[in-house]
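name: query_chain
kind: protein
chains: 1
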Amino acid sequence: MNKQSILGVDVTKEIRFGTDGIRGEVGHEPFTSNSLINLGKAIATWGSQKRGYSPKFLIINDTRISCENIKKFLRIGLDSDNVKSVDGGILPTPACLALIKNCKNFDFGIVISASHNKFSDNGIKIFDKNSFKLNEDDEKLIEKLFSQFATYENTDSNKNIDSNETKFVPYTDKEFKELYKQNILSFFKPNLLANVKITLDCANGATYKVAPEIFEALGAKVNSIAIDPTGLNINENCGALHLERLQKSVIENKSDFGFAFDGDGDRVMAVNRFGEIKNGDDILAILSTHPHIDNIKKIVGTIMTNHGFLVFLQNNNIELIRTPVGDKYVMAKIEEENLELGGEASGHIIIKKYLSTGDGIFAALKTLEAALINKNFELKSFEKYPQVILNVPIKAKHNLSQGVFAEIINKHQKKIINGRLIVRYSGTENLLRIMTEDKSADLAKSVANSLALDLQKVLN
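structure:
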């Protein structure tokens, strides 16, 4: 990242959008006060140019302790261009898009969240009311404008944001929370979940208050866990990436179903009454049997979608379309093919009739609706191919299609007999992700471990 030195202070001159907005460690660029102010200015200028007038932004956030400081400095930048912004407080990421779509006064939305990451990270996502997530041209213009604003201004504000310098006080605007709730409830019959016992793991994150309220409004008997955010415990041994606590709670409380959301609420994972995990592929399989979801001739998955799901769909005369990993790629393909349903094994589930992004709460409710209609109380789906996924820490990202990297990958690819091998970089972290899939679980595990060791040696 290029930097310029001003009075002995390093100020970043560049930002880069990743697969899901801008993300990084708080206190490091671009999550310092000066850069956040410049980013606010860039977003304001971009929005004004795109609309031709001074637009209005809705800003929401998850439960990280750093959110209030990030919001404060972003709004300083937004205000400098006379752009209006409204603070919606703690709400799930999909609530932002739902609200700006249904509230005519808003043009854009900003979400401050690092999703499933640890509390010391944070991120910024931008939604356009008319086009969902930003396109590449939008992102490039904001990056360019940021570089232009990274001059001699605000140097007295250029200090690291200390995660502990703001006292954590959970805050949600009641009006916006109620609008989001009522929008979701409008898609379901009253008392849909009457006398159904459900355990919800809210990851100490953005769904901690609104999710239980929505399920209870539909008649469910709700047992909620991980609903005590401290600003520091988001995703900590809970939520969609850590399902052990949910499994245990479902069994101990004799719940009929369990669902876990991630920190910002756009992912969901399920657990049946026996504590068996059902991931995003299982949820898509269950949703493919929903009688009220139209046009399910094709379903969009990703390169990580289990081969067993492909076989399941083929047996039901449904085509699977694969995309790169990332819900924005899934949504782009849904739009291109004019489809209704798609998602990722990680739990991003997009139901286009509702919203152009994943909403963990809505997906969970729609899954329950399908299960109740079809009397699928055990959330049966399909037989998975054994799959091994490894996350390998790395220092640098090199081109895996060239040189010794390609040779190592090709050597291991030949060992896979009845399955697939996928190697890719994380779009948000310094991680190499390896996935092996084969009818033989032992072979999939052996190849994944051997490949990880060989690649780690040369990448580090």
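note: The longest strand covers residues 121-128.
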